[in-house]
Design a protein that fits this description.
By secondary structure, this protein is an alpha+beta fold. Helices cover 18% and strands 19% of the residues. A two-stranded antiparallel ribbon has the order 1-4.
Length: 85
């Protein structure tokens, strides 16, 4: 299974090629006016991560970025233990 990621897009760099939409339509779309990328899901489901990575490679303008996001551990959200004296 792929590690969780966070997707970002730069509409100023987008050239409207649409490769991202064809590759991962559950994550990307294009606007009706200029055909520029729209991000539908910044945190895609695990089964879409490989397609998102492919969309990054296929984007001729380099307008898509992917960063790993930390997984939540069982301790996350727990009160922090007091510091040792």
């Amino acid at each position: 299974m792929s590690a969780p990621v966070r997707v970002g897009v730069d509409r100023d760099r987008c050239c409207g090629a649409g490769n991202c939409v064809v590759t991962a339509p559950e994550v990307f779309d294009q606007d009706d006016e200029e055909g520029l990328v729209l991000l539908r899901r910044a945190e895609p489901p695990a089964d879409a991560v490989d397609r998102v990575r492919l969309a990054v490679e296929l984007c001729p303008a380099g307008a898509i970025s992917v960063a790993h996001r930390p997984e939540h551990s069982a301790v996350a959200g727990s009160p922090q233990a007091p510091a040792a004296p």
